[in-house]
Design goal:
Helices cover 10% and strands 32% of the residues. By secondary structure, it is mainly beta.
Length: 111
């Protein structure tokens, strides 16, 4: 399993990577939670239709810099982010605890 970190975190966090089309479409659907985060590659928007819990969504550019962070309740459709190339998803509230915010660079390790 891969991990990720952000400046000032001082730790590596577990990261699942969804690279295939089916894995990206499935995302966190059908789960009751997530250990760490899920990275959706080649993605610029997400939805929470059919989700069981609220999630934090960080839109990343091609360098891994956070463009925006949003909390989405179940049953929502997120806006398309023009410069986003990847999306990082976690349980609601996790991004704030980890210091993931606009302008921060997310580094993926062990990929």
């Amino acid at each position: 399993m891969a991990t990720f970190t952000v400046p000032g975190l001082g730790a590596e966090l577990p990261l699942e990577i969804a690279e295939s089309g089916p894995a990206r479409r499935r995302g966190l659907l059908g789960r009751d939670g997530v250990n760490g985060a899920l990275l959706l590659t080649s993605s610029s928007s997400v939805h929470t239709l059919g989700m069981r819990f609220a999630i934090d969504v960080a839109y990343l550019d091609r360098h891994g810099t956070v463009l925006a962070v949003r909390t989405m309740r179940p049953g929502r459709i997120g806006l398309h982010r023009l410069r986003a190339r990847r999306v990082l998803e976690s349980e609601a509230g996790a991004m704030a605890r980890w210091g993931v915010r606009r302008g921060v660079r997310v580094t993926v390790l062990g990929r």
